[in-house]
């Protein structure tokens, strides 16, 4: 009986160790939703990408870089209006997603710029973009090429006139 108890206790401890996620401290644990790209006709050579990144962890997560096999470069940008003129600013230090929060990449705000496209992108195409964070392995996200932004629910408290 005593030996059986020890075997069961060791098995329980081993099961607990094996059940613990081995990559918990290496993976940022982020989630991706609503990933889409604007179409790019032949000769355009660039497009912009949008998505929502959710950080369910208790620590901030920094999106550091992005890359895709269909583009020479993918950079992080934000649109800014200064003195009535809109322009883009590169997010050279990446973008921090706060603990328990999210970061939206949307038209007129944060976005990815895919430059040096290897071919045109038409509505319905799917493109893989690899997102690199400060911690953890890169995350591959599938972006769908769409003609317009996906329908989104109206934020709470907002009304159409």
Task: Explain this structure.
The chain is mainly beta and 161 residues long. It has one domain: PCu(A)C copper chaperone (Immunoglobulin-like, Sandwich), CATH 2.60.40.1890. Helices cover 11% and strands 44% of the residues. Strands 1, 2, 3, 4, 5, 6, 7, 8, 9 and 10 form a ten-stranded mixed β-sheet that branches. A hairpin with a 5-residue loop joins β9 and β10. The radius of gyration is 21 Å and the shape is globular.
Shape: globular
pLDDT below 50 for ≥5 consecutive residues: which ranges? 1-28, 153-161
Structural class: mainly beta
Number of extended strands: 10
User: Which bin fits the share of residues in helices?
Assistant: 10-25%
What fraction strand?
35-45%
The total of helices stands at: 1
Domain count: 1
Q: What's the order of the H and E elements?
A: HEEEEEEEEEE
Q: Which CATH class is shown?
A: Mainly Beta
The second-level CATH architecture is Sandwich
How widely separated are the two ends? 76 Å
Q: CATH homologous superfamily - what is it?
A: PCu(A)C copper chaperone
Estimated radius of gyration: 21 Å
Nearest-integer average pLDDT? 81
Biggest beta sheet attributes: 10 strands, mixed
CATH topology: Immunoglobulin-like
């Amino acid at each position: 009986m005593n030996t059986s108890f020890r075997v069961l206790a060791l098995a329980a401890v081993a099961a607990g160790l094996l059940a613990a996620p081995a990559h918990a401290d290496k993976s940022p644990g982020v989630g991706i939703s609503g990933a889409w790209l604007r179409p790019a006709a032949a000769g355009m050579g660039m497009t912009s990408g949008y998505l929502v990144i959710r950080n369910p962890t208790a620590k901030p997560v920094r999106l550091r870089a992005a890359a895709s096999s269909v583009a020479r470069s993918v950079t992080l940008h934000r649109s800014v209006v200064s003195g009535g003129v809109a322009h883009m600013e590169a997010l050279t230090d990446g973008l921090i997603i706060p603990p328990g929060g999210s970061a939206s990449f949307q038209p007129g705000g944060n976005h990815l710029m895919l430059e040096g496209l290897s071919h045109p992108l038409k509505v319905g195409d799917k493109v893989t973009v690899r997102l690199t964070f400060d911690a953890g392995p890169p995350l591959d996200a599938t972006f769908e090429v769409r003609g317009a932004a996906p329908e989104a629910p109206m934020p709470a408290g907002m009304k159409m006139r």
